[in-house]
Amino acid sequence: MSNDPHIRALREALVAEHESTIAEVQGWADEAGAAGDTDRQRRHLAHVARLKAIPYPWEGKASAA
To answer: Which domain of life is it from (predicted)?
Structure first.
């Protein structure tokens, strides 16, 4: 992990944007559930799961180049 303030700021921005997107899609799932649209809710929850599974670039495995 880098101590460079610019790198930290970029990481924080990436994390904040990613978490915001997850929260937005989760909100869509919640709205669908409240409306009784279980199919749409299921699709949005699957999308949330996919978003949560995306590793950040600095968490990935080193490439075997």
So the answer is: Bacteria
What is d(CA 41, CA 32) in angstroms, rounded to the nearest whole number? Answer: 5
Cα distances from 47 to residues 8, 21, 22, 57, in angstroms, run 27, 10, 9, 20
The rounded distance, in Å, linking the Cα atoms of 60 and 65 is: 14
Q: Is 56 exposed, middle or buried (0-12, 13-18, 19+ CB in 10 A)?
A: exposed
Residue 1 DSSP code = -
Distance CA 37, CA 9 (A): 39
Mean pLDDT of the chain: 91
Domain assignments of the chain as residue spans, ordered by start:
5-55
pTM of the model: 0.82
